[in-house]
Every structure is written in C-alpha cells, then in structure tokens.
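Sample pair:
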Amino acid sequence: MIKVLINAQFMESLLYSLEAEESVLGSVFFNNNEMNVIADKLLVEDFYSPNNQIIYKAMLALFHNNNAIDMITLITYLENVNNLDKVGGRDYIINLASVVPSTANLLEYINIVKDRSVLRRLQEKFSELIEKSKSVENAPHFIDQVEKEIFDITKNRRSSDFINISEIAEETINKLAEREQVVDNVTGLDTRYKALNSYTLGLQPSDLLIIAARPGIGKTAFALNLALNIGSLEKRPHIAFFSLEMGVEQLLLRLLSAQSSISNTKLRKADLSSTEWERLQTAVKNLKGTNIYFDDSGTVEVMDLRSKCRKLKQNSKLDLVIVDYLQLLSGSGVYRGNRVQEVSEISRVLKEMARELKVPVVALSQLSRGIEQRKGDDKRPKMSDLRESGSIEQDADIIIFLYVKDEDNDDERKRNLTQFSVAKNRHGTPGDFQLIFNKETSKFNSYSGD
C-alpha cells in the first residue's frame, strides 16, 4: 500500500513543477520585459497551481494595459478583484521574488512549465480516448482522430520566437545560391519530363498536384511513369502508390512494360523471345533497386490513407504520395449522402497531409462527361469539368488536365500525342505541353515537336 502511494505521488510530481512556475512568475519582478516572452509562450492553463494561474492572469491584465508589474501593483490589482487572499496573501507574492535562482534561465523554466502542461493534457486526453474507444463504430476514423488530437497537443509544446527578417533573408539567399548550381533549375523531385519540370521545378514538398482526365487517356499510366522516373533517381526516393482501382500485379506488369519496352499484351501472354526475356530480367532488376511501395489493400477512407503515410514518414520512408484515384476515396462519414461535400473533405485532407508530412501528393481525378457532350471542337478540359469538384480546385496547388485533340486522332503522325494543360499553377504560370503516349507499353516520352 505504501509503495503504491509513493508511486502515485511520484507520477503526480511529473505532471507539474511548482518551482518552475514560481520562477517564471518571479522573473517578471526583476525585468518587466520578460512578460513579452512569457505571454508569447504560456497560457493561463499551462500553470498547474490555481494560485499561480490567478497571479499569471493578473500579470497578463497589467501587461496588456501597459502597467508596470511589481509587487505593489500586483498586490493592489489582486486586492481590487478580491483575489489576494485566494493566492496566499502578500506573503506569497513577496516570496515569488525570492525563489528565482536566475532570470538567465527563464526559457528553461518556461519549457518545464509547458512540457508538464502537455503531459497533463495528454493524460486527460488518453483517459477521454479510453472511454470513447469503448463505443467506437468506425475504427479507422477513430484511429485517425486519435493521431490528430495527440499531434495537435504535442506539436506546439515548445513555442518558437519570431525570426528577424534579416535572418530569413540570409537563409533565403543561401538557398537561392544553392539552386543556382542545380541543373535545369529542378529544386524538387525530378520528374524527368523537361516540359513538366519547367512548370513545377520538380514536384515540391507540401504541394497537392491533381492530374485529371477522362477514362482511357492514360492517367494511371502517367502516374506510374512518374513513380518510375522519380523512383529511379540517384537518391532513390520513397514513393507510396495507393491504387484503389487496380491490383499490384496489374500495376507491376505496366511498370515492367514501360521499363522493358515490351507490350502489355505480350507480357500478359508471356509470349516473349529470348531477347525480350533478357530485357524483362533487366527491368525486374532495375525495379528492385527502387523504393516504390504499392498499397492495393482496398484502402478507401482518406483518414486510413493518411495514417499509413504518417507511419512511413515516421520511419523516414516517404518522399512522394500518389493516389489513384481521388473519387474512389471516401471521407470520414460526416457528409455521407452529400458527395460534393465528401470530396471536398477528401481534397482538404490530402492537402493537409501534404503540408503536415512535407511531401508532394499527386492525386488522380476523373473528369465529368460534360466534355464529351460539348458541341464543336471545344474538348479542352476546364476546372468545372472536375468530377464532384467540391473544393479540389481551391485545395490543389497544381492542376493538370490530360486530353487528346480530335484532329490528332485523325493524323497518323500525331495519334499518340497527349495534350497536358497546366490549368492552375500556384507557384508559376499556367500553360501547355505535349508528351507521346505509347499505349502498348504504358510509356510516356518527351515530345520535341517533330
């Protein structure tokens, strides 16, 4: 019994430090300017002691009214609001000034108070989550909420100071100097398509890129080409490819076809010459050297997808996320029955994930049939053609439409030409380029205009 009591007291002592709280408050008496730092980093509820909460709240009131803070002004304020006796009277206020070991260590005292506050909030949250877990109906959504709530509590446990513009300018100049040395000005993940890189400078961290087209144009094939090109870079980036439409075997066959230049049909039939078998073995060897991860588990909830990506990021195994395709995902269930609202939630979560994990997210998207129903030759996709668009165009940093011109279908020389329309580019200008698409090998190649 005594041992249990001692353990309980020890655990409770980890949740607060009265000495640190008193040192933070006492520091203000030595230098009123310290309130600028303290007010920026600590909330009233970060203090464990009710007495210290009342005193800090009083100090904040004096501070915001531009009044000096010393023992006299603080005692007078507390008397006026009938709180002086609640905090232990004048003796407790006078004692605060004598318990400060050194104001030079103020930031350390602040961090101790903040960290203990986070521990208390985590303890409360864990107790709350344990109760909620007893009646969970949607496990993936609940798990995602647990991750998010804990992340929200811990992410700001150490507040950072403002950064002087001179420091930012110096750092920016150094980055620009480094970029000057980069070949082709590619600062993100090199797609190995010069035309695409000219608009994106490579796929950038925290960006959401939407690639949209009607069925049969080559969305999945292009996404696989991106994965193959980026996965083959010297640094071997880690790529998570979520396929909600095709199985791993189908995806792998397409990758092998693109890598070996052997048609999909021949691969499926295994009708290969000895030379083609050699090329296939080489392609397999090259693919083994990449860090491309396929997920065809039927992950349909965007929260589940984000949870899997977080785990990869925690293990330093995530540099790019590709989702095929957006409309096959489902949301949290809050907007069930309202598909436009649900797709809006999905695009918002994908954008939040890109920013949180600091990786580019490429999401494929379907276009509505409105294009095919338009009269005349106006078959160029528009923002309004995004199926169940919701807030896709608002959340996306870059939107690229793939389409084939009717006149190109009638021209033998241009039959494999695919148009790429950069309809939105948050970091640059919109524009157009073309790539050659070999459907037999699922391969996109650069187009020189010849």
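The CA atoms of residues 402 and 420 lie 5 Å apart.
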